[in-house]
Structures are given as structure tokens and as C-alpha cells.
Specification:
Helix content: over 70%
Strand content: under 5%
Largest sheet: none
Radius of gyration: 21 Å
Number of helices: 3
Distance between the termini: 62 Å
Length: 104
């Protein structure tokens, strides 16, 4: 079934937001490493290794983002559900701990 223009636009917005999130996760630590290197807190060798690692990870992301649109949307949905479960799990444990404790 063909998707409507509005549905395709919404999917692209989801993909764009996910791309931004993943690139920030990848590049922000590298940016911090550049700042450390500039201040003298990181050697050229370590910085070069970090650049190499980030490049390898970026190649993996490229593979993900050039896969089929439907597959990519399923990955995004799966990760979002996993994050929701991980975020709610500590809250549920805290609530259970509170219920189990005797009052006064």
C-alpha cells in the first residue's frame, strides 16, 4: 500500500531526528577529545585512535541509514521501545522498594 505524502513526511522527520541523535552520540565525545588534545590533556596518538574509532562507527551508521526505509523505521521503533523500558524499569523498582518497606 502506498503511503500518503503526510505519512512519508512524518517518517522522514523521525529518521532525521534519529540521525541527529546518533551523530551527536558519536561526535560529541570526539569533540570533547579534541578539546582535551588542544589543552594538552590528550596525546596525538590517542586522538588519532579516537578519530579512527569514530570513523569505523560512522561507517556502520552509514550502512544503517542506507538500508531500506522500512527497516530503518523498525530499528528506530525498537530502540525507542527499549529506551522506554529501561527508563521505566528503575521507576518500577523504586516503587516496589517503597511498597515492601514497613511503615513506622
Amino acid at each position: 500500500m502506498k503511503k500518503s505524502k503526510g505519512q512519508r513526511k512524518r517518517e522522514q522527520e523521525i529518521i532525521d531526528a534519529y540521525y541527529d541523535k546518533r551523530m551527536r552520540q558519536l561526535l560529541e565525545p570526539l569533540y570533547e577529545d579534541f578539546q582535551k588534545w588542544k589543552r594538552g590533556g590528550l596525546s596525538h596518538y590517542v586522538l588519532f585512535e579516537r578519530i579512527r574509532q569514530v570513523h569505523k562507527e560512522n561507517q556502520k551508521l552509514y550502512g544503517l541509514f542506507t538500508s531500506s526505509r522500512d527497516f530503518l523505521l523498525k530499528v528506530i521503533q525498537f530502540e525507542a521501545e527499549l529506551e522506554r523500558k529501561q527508563t521505566s524499569a528503575p521507576e518500577e523498582e523504586s516503587a516496589r522498594d517503597t511498597e515492601d518497606k514497613p511503615v513506622g
